[in-house]
Amino acid sequence: MRHHHFGKQLSRDIKQRKTLFKSLINSLVIHNRIRTTEAKAKAVRGLADRLIAKGKVKTPQMRRLIAGFLQNKQAVNKIVDQLGPLFKKRPGGFTRIVRLGRRQGDDAMMVRLELVESPPDQSAEAKPATRKIISTKKTKK
User: Fold this and answer.
1) CATH architecture assignment, domain 14-116
2) pTM of the entire structure?
3) Which one of 7, 17, 40, 56 is CB 3.0 to 4.6 Å from 12, fit for a cystine?
């Protein structure tokens, strides 16, 4: 029986489920979007929104609370330094779910979980070096 078990179990025990949620939220924060199943996205969306709401309050205590859950310094810094000020005026609903279709192997509904607004990308400022295209055609003699 499921006495006092809140949320989706996703056929995992509590340690596996927490680790799954942490890794999904870390990927969402770092990459601004992830592709996953609908059940996982719905289970993670509320947690991600709560962490971003904590990041809006820019205090050391909130940074510690976020770091205690995520345990990824890069994700914590991005939530507090970039996403918090970006969503300052928005009261909630920081993520959206977009359906992509069914996965071919097991017919699971695949979705894209993404942030509603994207932070300004620093990689756009530093342009990557262009790569030369080497021709593989053989020349006739």
Assistant:
1) Alpha-Beta Complex (3.90)
2) 0.80
3) 17
